[in-house]
Amino acid sequence: MNTADLNAVAPSAPAAPAVAAPTTAFVGASWVALLLGMTGFLTGLFNASMDLSEKGFYLTLLLFGLFGAVSVQKSVRDRAEGIEVSALYLGLSWAAVGVSLSLLSIGLWNAELARSEKGFYAMAFGLAMYAAVAVQKNVRDLAVGNRTAARSSSGASASIGAGETGPADNPLRWRLGS
C-alpha cells in the first residue's frame, strides 16, 4: 500500500480505547468500599455530639465531594475516549474535589473533636471518594462492554439509528441497546 492509499482510508472518528470488563470481585469490592466509607462517615455524624448545623456541613461536604469525584472521573474518561468535554466543566469538577477536601481539612482542624475522631472522618471521607471513582469506572466499563456485546451479537447497524455512526459523532443521540 502506498501513502495515497493510506490517506484515502483515514478513519472518520478516533477509535475508543479497548476497555476490559471489570471482574465481579472488583465491582463488588468497589461497592462495598463506597458503602463502608459512606456508612462510616454518616454513622460518625449521627453519633457525634456536635450542632446540627455542623453535622449538615459535613454531610454536604461528603455529597459535594462524591459528586466532584464522579464528575472528574467521567470528564477524564470522556476526554480519553475522544468525547468533547469543556475545559470549564473539567475545571469545575477538579475545583469541587479540591474545595471539598480543603473545607473538610479546615473543618476538622478547627473542630473540637478528639484526634482519633478527626482521623476517622478523614479516612471515611477518603475511602468514599476513592470508591465513588471506582464505582463510576465500573459502571462505565460495564456499559461499554454491554454496548459492544450488543453490537457484536446483532450487528453494528442494528444498534445504530438511521444517520448515526456512533457516539463520536453525537454522544447525545447515542442510545444503549436500541
Written description of the protein model:
By secondary structure, this protein is mainly α. It has a domain at 52-150. The protein is built from 5 helices and no strands. It has helices spanning 3-8, 24-47, 52-80, 87-110, 115-154. Residues 157-164 and 170-178 have low confidence and may be disordered.
Short description:
This protein is an all-alpha fold and 178 residues long. The chain is built from five helices and no strands. The two termini are 38 Å apart.
Mass-distribution shape: elongated
Count the helices. How many? 5
Mean pLDDT reading? 82
Cα distance, first to last residue? 38 Å
Q: Name the structural class.
A: mainly alpha
The major β-sheet equals: none
Strand/helix succession: HHHHH
How many strand units? 0
Ranges where pLDDT stays below 50 over 5 or more residues in a row are: 157-164, 170-178
Radius of gyration: 22 Å
Helicity, as a percent range: 55-70%
Strand and helix layout:
Layout: H1 3-8, H2 24-47, H3 52-80, H4 87-110, H5 115-154
Helix pairs in contact: 2-3, 2-5, 3-4, 3-5
Core attributes:
5 helices; elongated; mainly alpha; single chain; disordered C terminus; 178 residues
